[in-house]
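Components:
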Amino acid sequence: MSELTLSELSVRGHRGPRLMPLDVPARGVDRLLPADRVRKDRAALPEISEPVAMRHFVNLSTLNHHIDKAIYPLGSCTMKYNPKLNDEMARIPGFAAIHPLQPDDLAQGALAVVAELHEWLRVVMGMPGVTTQPAAGAQCELTAVLMARAYHRDHGDPREEVIVPDSAHGTNPSTVHQVGYRVVQIPSGPDGCVDLDALKRAISPKTAAMMLTNPNTLGIFERQVGTIAKLIHDAGALLYLDGANLNAMMGLASPGAMGFDFAHINLHKTFSTPHGGGGPGGGVLCVREDLEPYLPLPVVEQDGDRYRWIYDRPKSIGRVHSYYGNFGILVRALCYMRSLGASGIAEASREAILNANYLKARLKDAYAPSHDGPCTHEFVLSASRQKARGVKALDIAKRLLDFGMHAPTIYFPLIVEEALMIEPTETETKASLDAFADAMLQIDRESTEDPDRVRQAPTKTPVRRLDEGRAARKLILSWQDLEAEGAGI
Amino acid sequence: MLERIGVPRDEDLWASIPAEFRVQGPLPLPAPLAEYEIARRFEQWGERNADAGRYTCFLGGGIYDHFIPAALRSIVSRSEYATAYTPYQPEVAQGTLQVIFEYQSMIRELTGMEVANASLYDGATAAVEAAHFAAGATGRKRMLCSAGVHPHTREVLRTYASAGGFHLEEIALENGRTPVGPIAKAGTELAAVIWSQPNFEGVVEDGAALTKAAHDIGAYSLAGADPVALAVLRPPGHDGADVVFGEGQPLGVPMTYGGPLVGFFAIRKAQVRRLPGRLAGVTVDLDGKRGYVLTLQTREQHIRRERATSNICTNQGLMALANTVYLALLGAEGLKDVATQCLERAHYLADRVREIPGITLAHGDAPFFREFVIRLPAPAESFTRWAVDRKILAGIPLAKFDRSRPNDLLVAVTEKRSKEDLDRYVEALASWAKSHAKSPKEEAACPS
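Structure:
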């Protein structure tokens, strides 16, 4: 039996916590509002008691895989353990119960958190300009491309195109399009890195920027990044680092030294803020010095021991968030960085690389790696051999769920057939990596000995494989739709 | 592990990073701190902020100090929700997926629309998505945006509009309300009208008239809405609005200095293929058991890349969970209670305040919900500073957004403000007004 919906649990007249009684004279909605602006129907929200609600949400929660349960090796997502202190700090009333429009004088602690986080991020990235206003990585991309457009316009020509490698995350081309630029996609070379000849052919006076993920989505460091930066800069264009893979180089390598003009960071990946079932994330955009005037407003400024928000920057692209970005996430990220300190930040990346290479070494004979040699913090395997036996990457992913583990990212990057993109992170122990490797090797054996077992998987999860085609053909997107369907589902 | 990998030292694993890009030596940052050292630092920072526990908060403008049930905090802090990611493997993410489905159902109900998505970053970016949606659906770019839309939302709209996807023109408020005249005169090439219910200055708009005016010239009606207000105000969906969007913070999300927030977004079912963001739907598993999946993913960036309906990659999962738990705990009656108490308490305060000599309501008898603008005899910031000494955060001086209105103050009243809080506000304001009733010249001559 599935967990019922709130609507199905609803009993007329039941309710949860109550308010204090109204202690001012009641005048009535009908006297305070014009009749034609009052809601006529009663909003059909559920009516349930607190204990019933608690059981409902707790029961539902047990159906989820999560990082506090077991390994979550989604490539490019950096599912590392989230230390609990960080959440506790974000819940301090002095952070959780403050209003964004209270005067700066009454929010000095909050401003100090933002300023100190920015200082740490400048050091890690080797870049002088920082904003933490974007709500997530995709919004950082958008902010940067808008800034690039403003920058080029100031230099006489907004330009028309942005170069994106074919191994890029889908948000890159989508962002470029949304900002009104044309996407110029370039193929990766046989080594999985940017093909310099293809890049040279793509660069023109129309090029506004290039977006590059480094290490790239195959988990390979783009050795030619210095040359790429020079080619891009010689054309008067700007180089953007999609920092989804920053966990491979914190404290080891400096994006500023590589020649990036923009770099984004996903705080929910590299700096360990909880992913929340898909948000809130936290976006950081770092920029080189002459791009700072274009950063979104407001920006934080320190004046002696006082901090304030600055709004007068005429070249700024403007605001991209209702207030100052995901402040609660910034608190968590700074807390994490403070607990690691200088040594721990570099150590985290070193161990992430070590763990990925160990896992790759254990799996590379059974599953074809996209590339030989060491990887960074993640690597891509192809299930092409298993596919020849009738077992696809999707089947392998589903079978892993039966072992109580999460699956890797599958079918990405698009340039690898039957891709399994694996990122263990530094917070997995050797025992946990071995258990994952053992499961993967067992599934490989099953692909020969008992392929049906893999194709039928999962069988031990709360539900078995779900019919996604049916969901898209017969759209049931709310209780109201479900009721209209009758008892059939 | 190194032996298994086949390298002698772990440095050999990042030999592919050219030396010129390497960080030489340790980062110039401090050493690690223990948990209790960090806690001490952060608690000290927290004490330097005026929180709504120690100060009585009358600040609003889209972010409100509403009651948040303890049970909600307990659910939202569970690892099972907080440390999961986007439900890429639905068989082990049914909790997250069913919550999204329930969230979509309740937003649909509140807004009076037909489909809601799984949520967006915040109210401002939800407005941007509404603008893109309307531009895509109508093939036009010109939009009228009411000055009653939150000034920050208008700023964010302008930022995104600079990319050329849509153009904005502003409609000035008349007596605190959005007039329909400029819409009627806008011509036929208009994509949409963007407005807010209630508007930024707290006034309840004539939503039916605004939507009708937009539809009369073939434009979309994009309605921002306060989700708490929708328990007592006629939802824009009931008047035929094409998009209802807004900020979900009032539904159980702590203020947290303005983020993380959560945007909601609801439309008509016929246009679901244009919907931005994630969407959960019901299906069955191999055994015929009910289950939930993300659906219509071909709209999204990871499949469609540059042809996606939006570049957004996630929803705002944990905040949407907070909204869902809040609405479940409060329920139909509870939410109506919250809304009614906001309305009653705000009117009590407004009526008391306007009795003070020299103080008026900027928009007279225009209907309002939980927020209103008071006009003071001297700069509003002088009163807010005075009130801070009495542990009251008295409101948002509108000079922050419009320098021509130095004496206007936006005051918000939630269900948490007791009669005692409200009376204390009135006393503070009355005593301030008394000492500031003189002309500025006299004031300078005899400092109190």
